[in-house]
Design a protein that fits this description.
The protein has 453 residues and is α/β, with parallel strands linked by helices. It is 49% helix and 16% strand. The chain folds into three domains: 52 residues, no CATH class; 134 residues, Leucine Dehydrogenase, chain A, domain 1 (Rossmann fold, 3-Layer(aba) Sandwich), CATH 3.40.50.10860; 164 residues, 3-Layer(aba) Sandwich (Rossmann fold). A seven-stranded mixed sheet has the order 9-8-7-6-10-11-12, sandwiched between helices. Strands 1-2-4-3-5 form a five-stranded mixed sheet. Bound molecules: NADPH dihydro-nicotinamide-adenine-dinucleotide phosphate (NDP) and (2Z)-2-iminopentanedioic acid.
Length: 453
Amino acid sequence: MSYDNNLSVKQEMDRFMKGLVRRNPCEDEFHQAVHEVATTIIPYVHDKPLYRKARILERMTEPDRIISFRVCWEDDDGNVRVNRGYRVQCNNAIGPYKGGLRFHHEVNLSTLKFLSFEQTFKNSLTGLPMGGAKGGSDFNPKGKSDHEVMRFCQAFMTLLSSHIGADVDIPAGDIGVGAREIGYLFGQHKRLTNEFTGVLTGKGLEYGGSLVRQEATGYGAVYFLEDMLKEKGEGLEGKTAVISGSGNVATFAAKKLMALGARVVTLSDSSGYIYDPDGLNPEKLNYILALKTVRRGRISEYAEEYNVKFFPGKRPWEVACDVAMPCATQNEINKQEAEALVANGCIAVSEGANMPTEEDAIGVFQRAGVMFAPSKAANAGGVAVSGLEMSQNSARISWTEDELNKQLREIMAKIHDRCVEHGREGEYIDYVKGANIAGFIKVADAMLAYGVV
Ligand code: NDP
Ligand code: 2IT
């Protein structure tokens, strides 16, 4: 189809989405992520023929490359197991591909296409030279022994290693991939290539990791929340916070919220949520960290330990709060839950997880004037410190905790500023629009510079 200058924004949107759905059937999460971006980018580029003629959005929504491979490994009983592994290299216009690996039984191509697309915008927002990618497997780490996880990671890296490299594509962690998995993956890559390079981030401090990387996503999402509140003359002191998840992002978001004077009353996992009306404290947080990263137990054990209520099969959005931070997974706040949060007094939402809020739920927040920070801006602190880990690896140096904390804080403040610059609509700041446009411009301009490639 040739470029048609006379289409209205609505016609352009319909044409674009129809084509996307036709080319990527049954990939609902990918459609959702692209639709959310297109809703703000198509009006933005409407009077910019350079972008439209070069079909920038069409090219951004077609990943550069998708790698899919069989991963065979043996469990502790000697049974042969088969999983599917993927790497989606979405866009490397502004730097090498960069993004996490997710090990979760629900992972499919649609999940990883949506995540790699979001990552492209997020990485652009950090201001660092990183393209967007995501990978992973439908391997389910729950209930697996350390040896089984090690054998899986070694098999996975054996297939992935020829597609990645410190200047090519640098994976990191995500759901189900933490310090343990990164260690096994890095060890296997080193064994296969006989090279010690910064090919992964989120590494242990003993072998090239960076201070502040494990805290960065949760801390960064709280910093963004702090900046949004500051814009309205508010602060976190004395606020009640509701968080979902109890993994890497949730626990460090909770830690920073506590440090800034907020009361964190919930955490969750896929089996339900706990409500602790007194709020978490450092001792309780240490209990959670040990529960989730050492014993690999369930959040319901917290309820037994501290004699609070556990709500099986439920999500925490029914609990009254001032601020909410979804930090578990995609599509974990629906329209009704958003309405409940608004009705119960929530004034701000900062997304620690990727795309945790359904599109019509975002509409509920925005119409109610709730400050809403989309994931590609709010949780960019993780990949930003990954970028700083790459810089340290290249220069063979290690920055101090203070230096890294300072850089993280500044990067989050700059992302906030860019969102405000492109998202201000009178009194209200549309952070979704701001993040999409600010993230888009740098990638789009680099793509224009390359011509038709
Ligand atoms: P973890 O594996 O450390 O923790 C994931 C948490 O989410 C667990 O509590 C898990 O519960 C819960 N969870 C996972 N899937 C579901 C589900 N389908 N329904 C309900 N709960 C679920 O992962 P992270 O903390 O690293 O990641 C959390 C989110 O943050 C993800 O969206 C990820 O993409 C995003 N993110 C992570 C970054 C990072 O640096 N790690 C950076 C930026 C974003 P259970 O144990 O029961 O499965
Ligand atoms: O979604 C994300 O930004 C991550 N999982 C972190 C990616 C990274 O490369 O650190």
